[in-house]
C-alpha cells in the first residue's frame, strides 16, 4: 500500500517523504499479510502450520508431519459428535475427505457399513477407521476400501422429435 497517494502533490519531490513512504508502506504491507493470515487461521481448511498447531494444542492431538494429515486429524476431532446417523457420517466425510472423494454404502440386512475412499486419500484410511470405530454403533461391521479411477469411453445417442400441432 502506497501512502504517497494520500499526501498532497507538492510533497512528492521531498526525499524525506519518499523514504517515509517506502518504509511505512513496507510495514503496512507486512501487517496486512499478518492480519489476513490471522483471519485464515480461524478456519481449519485455510489455517497455516501455526494455526494448525493451535488447534492441535486445543484438542490434544499429536503432531503429524504432513499438513493434510494434520488438517484431517483436526477436522476429524472437531466433527466428532454423537449420536451416529448416516447424514451425520456423510457430512463428516464431506468435511474431512472432501465432497466426491468417497462412496458410502450401508447394508442394513447384514449390519455392514462400507466406505470406499479415493486412492489419493488412501493415507487417511487408518486414522479414519480408528476414529469411526469409536463413533459408530458397535454392532456395525466397518469396511474401508480404496477406489481407483477408471477411464471408460462413453457414447451417448440422442433422438429429437419435433412436431407441429394444428387445431381446427
Describe, in short, the structure shown.
The protein is of the alpha+beta class and 168 residues long. Among the domains are: 3-40; 82-148, GMP Synthetase, Chain A, domain 3 (2-Layer Sandwich). Helices cover 42% and strands 12% of the residues.
Helices and strands in order, then pairings?
Blueprint: H1 15-40, H2 49-59, H3 67-78, H4 86-96, E1 102-107, E2 112-118, H5 125-135, E3 141-147
Parallel strand pairs: 2-3
Antiparallel strand pairs: 1-2
Report on the architecture of this protein.
The protein is an alpha+beta fold and 168 residues long. Among the domains are: 3-40; 82-148, GMP Synthetase, Chain A, domain 3 (2-Layer Sandwich). The chain is built from 5 helices and 3 strands; from the N terminus they run ααααββαβ. The chain has a 3-stranded mixed β-sheet with strand order 1-2-3, with helices on one face. A hairpin with a 4-residue loop joins strand 1 (102-107) and strand 2. Helix 2 (49-59) packs parallel to helix 3. The chain is flat.
Amino acid at each position: 500500500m502506497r501512502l504517497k497517494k494520500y499526501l498532497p502533490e507538492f510533497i512528492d519531490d521531498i526525499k524525506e517523504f519518499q523514504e517515509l513512504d517506502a518504509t511505512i508502506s513496507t510495514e503496512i504491507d507486512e501487517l496486512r499479510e499478518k492480519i489476513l493470515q490471522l483471519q485464515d487461521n480461524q478456519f481449519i481448511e485455510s489455517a497455516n502450520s501455526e494455526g494448525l498447531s493451535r488447534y492441535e494444542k486445543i484438542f490434544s492431538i499429536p503432531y503429524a508431519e504432513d499438513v493434510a494429515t494434520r488438517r484431517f486429524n483436526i477436522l476429524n476431532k472437531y466433527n466428532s459428535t454423537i449420536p451416529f446417523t448416516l447424514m451425520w457420517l456423510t457430512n463428516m466425510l464431506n468435511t474431512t475427505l472432501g465432497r466426491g472423494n468417497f462412496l458410502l454404502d450401508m447394508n442394513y440386512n447384514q449390519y455392514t457399513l462400507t466406505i470406499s475412499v479415493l486412492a489419493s486419500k488412501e493415507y487417511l484410511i487408518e486414522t479414519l477407521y480408528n476414529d469411526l470405530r469409536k463413533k459408530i454403533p458397535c454392532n456395525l461391521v466397518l469396511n474401508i476400501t480404496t477406489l481407483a479411477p477408471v477411464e471408460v469411453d462413453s457414447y451417448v445417442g440422442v433422438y429429437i422429435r419435433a412436431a407441429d400441432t394444428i387445431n381446427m
